[in-house]
Amino acid sequence: MEITMGIARFTVIGLLFLTICSPGLLASGFENTGLGTTARGMGGAFRAIANDWTAAYYNPAGYAFSLDNQLGADLGLLHNRHELTPDYWFRDDVGNEYMSGIVNDVTLFNHHEILSNPTAGFMVRLPLWGETVFGLSAYQPFDYAISWKAYDPDAAGFYSYNDNASAALPDDQYRTDLDVVAFQLTAGREFVPGKLALGVGLQLLRGDLIFNDLILRKNPLTGTAADRPRDRIPEFTNNDGMGWGFGLNGGMLWKPTERLNVAVTARLPFDISIDGTTELRFVLPENEQAKDEANPNSVDHFFLSGAVVSLEADMKTKLKLPPSLAIGFAYEVTEKLTVAMDVEYTLWSRYDGLDFTYSNFSIEEYSNNVYIDSTMDFFSADLIRPADWNNAGKIMVGASYDFREYLTFLGGVSADQSAIRDAVEFSPQFVDTGDKYCFSGGFVAHVDRWDLGLVTSYTNYPDHEPGLNDVNNDDIFDSFPGEYKAAVYETILSFNYRF
Amino acid sequence: MPRYVLILSMLAIASALLLALGCNDRGSGIPSAPYDTEWGLHPSADHSYDKDLALQLRNPDEMWSGSMYIPRVTMDLPHGENKKAPVLILLPPQDGNRYYFFKAGLFDLAQKMIASGEIQPMYIYCPRNAHAFGGFFYGNSMPAGRADSIIGSRMIEYLKGRYPNIYPQASKHGIGGVGMGAYGAFRAALKHPFAFASITVTDGPLDFDGPGDHTGFLDLFDEAVAEQQLLTAYNTLEPVFTDIGTLFDTTYDTTLDTIADTIIDIDTSIDTSTIVDTNFVPADTFTYKKFDSGDAYISLPLSRLFIGGSLAFSPHDTFVDWEYYYMGSYEIFQKFSIDDSSTLISDLVHREYGDPADTEFDFDFHLPFKDTAGTAYPYFQPSPVIWPLWMRNNLDSLHESAPYFKPLRDVDIWIATNPEAKWNYYDMTQSWISTLTETFGYDVDVHIYGSFTDEPLTDDAYLYDLLREMLIYHSESFEE
User: Fold this and answer.
1) Any chain B CB within 8 A of the CB of A172?
2) Which of chain A's residues have a Cβ under 8 Å away from the Cβ of B51?
3) pLDDT class of A185 with cuts at 50, 70, 90
4) Which residue(s) pair with A247 in the sheet?
5) In this prediction, does ipTM exceed 0.95?
6) pLDDT of B359
7) In chain B, domain spans
8) Which of A15, A434, A440, B291 is a plausible cystine mate for A457, CB 3.0–4.6 Å?
């Protein structure tokens, strides 16, 4: 018992460290692809099996049927290999296209990064409430990370805006780094011995959000100072914040026959209020000739100067997380072969985008700048990124085959409906181009009390070509037009120790 | 034991797959600007001149593209020697693009001559002629843009800013041109005295009415009409006009047609409202709307030349009072137009989008000759209303209206000429040489080049040889 508690303490400290340091992964919308090698190797069809510590995520009721105490961890290594060929042109009221500063007709890549997603947990059978199995785990139910650079006047041939603009540009112009870590206390108990179990997980959710955006804001002036190509001013925002919330995860596991398992699960995450800071950077246009013609003491003169205005402020936003329901089936075809199928339905329609509210601007640097003072409404405008996503279904099918007593092979496939499939607000920050298919396979090696797993997967996305849209008529374009191509490669390594 | 071998093997395979599929860094994909570290030909030395080109036809990005030859010595260490060099601007003829001179061998020529020491290292900038109709004579108007204003000032400023090793002083700046570009070079120099130290040109429309004031373009009106098959019995006493209503579409690729400019230094401006030629007889035989010429009609070079010139020298709207309204939108308050319906070509250059009935942003223009033919050669005579507007843009007129006395007095002038030059360009050039030397008292280095019997002068057959002479002339001028 003492050894067990020592392992538990060590594990808790370790997994807290790992999860706080980790970047992230994806599935539909910004949901995690899952965790655990057995589950991921079977395409995610694991709710009706749920026989290791990752049941905390898939089906807490699975804890009840576990005969061993377990300690486990896994590491997902994921690589988004996406491409975007922008087709970002403005169109004037007579239909002529003109440049925006976005590099058009060139294939752009998301920034190279091998994303890591460590998770860990343990489960122990304690003599409380009649052989209830408890567990503590940390994992990321929601996770997404990607970044792009797409705006570069020099590379775009948009020289007329500001000859020095390219030197003032950040690299991570479009970026999402969203992590929702669940610290979950799980309990599972048999209510009909050997037949029916229920489980519940109480989650403390920590949300970390970095959201960088480029907004081509409408120039607030009129006349020459706002004449094309100065009609849109690039604003780079860097929002960085975190918040805490709660969530519930529950499930039922029923064994109607010796070979058949049936599962029903539900997840209910509550909203997370994110607080943090933001950095805003505006690259103003530069035109010496027009500036010379403007009154030197005018706002027009300042807006033609090519200045880079940087501001900092406090930021608030709310992260609305989607609930989900799922059912699962597992059938033991032979002693060695098990097949499983899960169906999950996630209520993505609840997510309606990100609205960032800014306050407490630090403008000491510009305290004597009357031009910024007089146009502060422009520089301090909140950022609204609407999203009209759809509920999405996912079907997962998988199999495991015990090749030898020391080796189990895994294989699976899933069809995942895109939450953004009909949304016109399509941006590089969430590249979910359409209904996608994931193929996965791997093995788990059993060495004494250890299970060592390795699974790799490939997710194929359809191409997508959204147009340029301003859905809420706020003069900010809510989509990034172009041709999107996407693919995701992922490898998961894991260990599980039974004691 | 075999199970461990198996496990290790599978781990190795999986790791290899992971590395192979996911680990190479593709970068951002954003192309880098090559001129930062490379010398030689930089083909994308483009620049947008808003306001000046805001409403140039078929140029909604207000862009003037060009190619730049960059001498190695001007590049930063370790790529070059970080030395300064003069700059030469070369203007192509009608339909010439940024590669016009490079296709004639300019790159190799410059490389060899700089390497051998025949010429000093110099930047050579080759902007393209305007898109529509092959060019607008580098003139100034709403639809043509303010080309000479750009060439004489903003273009040089842009080049100096982008290539910091260009000598800032005008004594190290030269200009040259071929055909229409020859006219553009002189025009820019006349309107911007002291901007250039040397001019080298070949035959071009350097005197619109030619020697004796009765040739030049005046002899080409008939040819332009015949080129369009409107005058089938060319050279007969009784011209016959064919009905070609379906033969020449009056629309063309207008995706780049755009709305007009405003605050334009309009050389062709006349007092805003009315010019009415009461002696004029309206046309009843055909309309100039059939005098179409887009890119699809590149085989009609004379027609396009006159339309391009008309859009520059005799646009229907000589002044437009407009204001930027909101994103991509302009509001026109008032237009001032030439009131002469007989020479007016309307509904030819227009926008593609929006209500076709809304002609607010359409560009109309006036051809320089009458719309009815006479009975004897030349059948088409200059319009007494419009032709003077062209002549206001003739080089001798520009010289006389220049802001300084003898605006070319500090400029070294070199003119290459050949009797086989097309479109009376030889006569026009001879007339301009005569005017320069005899009327205005300049020294002009005239280079008469002959053509071989088996290789007559057609278009640019001798451009390579001429470029050599031009580069040497500028190089020597820069050293003075």
Assistant:
1) no
2) 224, 227, 289-290
3) very high
4) A203, A269
5) no
6) 53
7) 34-207+394-479, 214-390
8) A440
